[in-house]
Amino acid sequence: MKILMKDILERRSRIAGISSLVFFLALLILPFLLTNAYYLHVLILCMIYACITSAWNMIAGYAGVFSFGFQALFGIGAYVSALLSMRLGISPWISMWAGAIAAMAIGAVVAIPSLKLKLLPYICIATMCMGEIIRLAVANFTTLTRGEMGLTNIPKLFADGNRTAYYYLAVVMFVLILAVVVKIVNSPMGMSMQAMKDSQEASESLGINISRTKIRIYMIGAFMAGLVGAFYAHYICILTPTSALGSSLMTSYVAMSLIGGIGTIVGPVLGSFVITIALEVLRALADYRMIFYALLIIVTIIFLRAGIWGSVKQIFISKAERFRNRSKEQG
Fold first, then answer.
1. b/e map of 205-233 (b: 16 or more CB within 10 Å)?
2. pLDDT by residue (tens digit) across 265-274?
3. Percentage of the chain modeled with pLDDT above 90
4. Which of 148, 194, 282, 331 lies at a 20 to 30 A Cα distance from 6?
5. What is the pLDDT of residues 54-78, one digit of tens each?
6. Are 151 and 82 in contact, with CB atoms under 8 Å apart?
């Protein structure tokens, strides 16, 4: 019986590994198949959202820390990198890392007081207020950020604006961030996060330092968000407080995680690609496409509470359970 279950788990891991390899190989080949630069642009946006959503899902889906001001960390990375390049002439390749470090530092400043709170509603409110305060600060500090007029002509990573080069850099960033998330989730720290999410009291009794774990994972996620934001700034080359720090971004991160499957590795990636591509396909419908967005979220919450990928996993697990029970009866 144990051998049969072991075979099932090994087969599942093998299928997941092969599927991931095929997916990443497809990403590498796509620029040779897609001649239209617009399609590459959409895929770059998919990977940007997949990176930031995976970072948020690591914090919320695995550690149970629901931060609703995560878009501010994305925006900080974008603005710091853009301003360092524009005002001081620092190379974007260097300023990107400065933006990521700045986001991590701000994340620490927010995390140390707010994540010591044990009640989830307090954490949600504290992080939400943080995000709005940062957005208002950027919008009103017009001498540096130009407020809602925005920053324009931000230096590019590639002087000629080569879309294919941006695409492959996005692939590298996407793979590295996803690899770090997988590594953390499957590490002892990941086990502490899962225990903390299930029961903070029980995890404390096991000797897990809840506050320290929350702060560490939040700072890692903040660094990822800042790095992605910096890449976004030097790719789009235009920043406004609404586009880089608006609450609608946070709504997108949550929706993509929920639709794909929060608390899973594949879910946020799947949700990011599905939502981004669907909204681009429906762009001709203008604001009416948001009706589709809302309906997709409602249908997912009602019928697929675990999200698309989460529901697939549940079906697989239930089939494995039925197979195990049948084997017990026959044995």
1. eeebebeebbbbbbbbbbbbbbbbbbbbb
2. 888 999 999 9
3. 40
4. 194
5. 999 999 989 888 888 899 999 999 9
6. yes
Whole-number Å distance between alpha carbons of 2 and 324: 9
Within 13 A of 8's CA, how many CA atoms are on the CB side?
15
Q: Which two tokens stand for residue 162?
A: 């080569």
CB atoms within 10 A of CB 155: 18
Compute the average pLDDT of residues 90-104: 95
> Residue 61 corresponds to which amino acid?
G
DSSP-based three-state secondary structure for 239: strand
Contacts of 141 (CB under 8 A, 6+ apart): 147
Burial class (CB in 10 A: 0-12, 13-18, 19+), 175: middle
> CA–CA separation, 178 vs 175, rounded Å?
5
> What distance in Å separates the CA atoms of residue 218 and residue 106, rounded to the nearest whole number?
11
d(CA 5, CA 114): 43
Structure tokens at 188: 């002892």
Count the alpha carbons within 13 Å of 103 in the hemisphere toward its beta carbon. Answer: 34
Instruction: Give the pLDDT confidence score for residue 49 in this predicted structure.
Output: 96
pTM here? 0.89
Residue for token pair 């709005």: 132
Rounded to whole angstroms, the Cα distance separating 153 from 208 reads 48
Tell me how far apart the alpha carbons of residues 62 and 252 are, in angstroms, rounded to a whole number: 19
pLDDT for position 3:
47
Instruction: Give the other-Cβ count within 10 Å of 16's Cβ.
Output: 12
Work out the angle between the directed axes of helices 70-88 and 210-236 (0-180°, nearest 10): 50
Q: Would you give the DSSP letter of residue 151? A: B
Q: What are phi and psi of 146, to 5 degrees?
A: 65, 15
